[in-house]
């Protein structure tokens, strides 16, 4: 059965034409799907067509399996179930300017970053564009409309390049969610060739690069991708993206005690970024017990921030959100898989 959300309006036109339906039906179906409706709810379609569509297509493909709400800040963590039984997760963060949804682009991840739980089980598979979109639509069904989207959940978006770009195009298609891509951030561990290709797509998303180090040696300790991609190569690609899109680049920097959080690290980072239109987002590390890494103390976070500001680097400290509901990427899915594994073992016993 096909995922209905994978299709563009033009593709629906072709599909429905093959079923003997008039062209205008494509816009109706596309609009209903993006409102979160299943085929039975599409009231302006003939009952016979609704029945045929339900036989051939899955109107959703992504359902909320569990929902956790932080008592600290109202952050919502979703555990989604896919049609094939895989689970992924997303985070709904509440801000005064509207809700932001963090979505996954893969089931698991193969990038192996040392501070991330998403990669602990490796990569199961990549998501289709409709499965990425389905997370947004499921969150919209659950509560009020999502205003901003960050591709910062499980997986590396640029490792699933074609489906990620297709998702971005679906987001702004007339009749659908029509989300401005300026309200979308794409987070990557840093794949220079793909960053350069993305710059040519005409998609004005904010590029958010997981940097997490001031030099190659420290970055290689934390991120396996850095063993084959130098910071000079990565930053050159970021400058290319900036030149092509006019969009400043965001650098994510998780402050890890004893690794990358000293003032001299801040000075080295500022030297690397000097003259570039960018912003540094400092992240107090959400602890991942399996990784054995600890976040920097608050005093170190503030000293790092001040060192960057003194060198004229735009910087903020990200507000910690969802710590009490396994807020770090991959933690909720990992806990679910562990509990399901334990349950299966007990049933065998």
Summarize the structure.
This protein has 349 residues and is an alpha/beta fold. It contains eleven helices and 14 strands.
3D architecture notes:
This protein has 349 residues and is of the alpha/beta class. 37% of the residues lie in helices and 21% in strands. It has helices at 9-18, 24-34, 47-56, 129-142, 161-171, 192-199, 216-222, 231-245, 263-273, 298-310, 331-348; strands at 2-3, 57-58, 62-69, 76-82, 87-95, 98-103, 106-108, 123-126, 148-151, 184-188, 206-210, 249-255, 278-284, 315-317. A 10-stranded mixed beta sheet has the order 3-4-5-6-9-10-11-12-13-14. Strand 13 (278-284), helix 10 and strand 14 (315-317) form a beta-alpha-beta unit. Helix 4 crosses helix 5 (161-171). The radius of gyration is 21 Å and the shape is elongated. 43% of the residues are buried. Mean pLDDT is 92; it is low at 344-349. The active site is at residues 89, 329. It comes from Candidatus Avichristensenella intestinipullorum.
Topology of helices and strands:
Layout: E1 2-3, H1 9-18, H2 24-34, H3 47-56, E2 57-58, E3 62-69, E4 76-82, E5 87-95, E6 98-103, E7 106-108, E8 123-126, H4 129-142, E9 148-151, H5 161-171, E10 184-188, H6 192-199, E11 206-210, H7 216-222, H8 231-245, E12 249-255, H9 263-273, E13 278-284, H10 298-310, E14 315-317, H11 331-348
Parallel strand pairs: 1-2, 6-9, 9-10, 10-11, 11-12, 12-13, 13-14
Antiparallel strand pairs: 3-4, 4-5, 5-6, 7-8
Helix pairs in contact: 1-2, 4-5, 6-8, 9-10
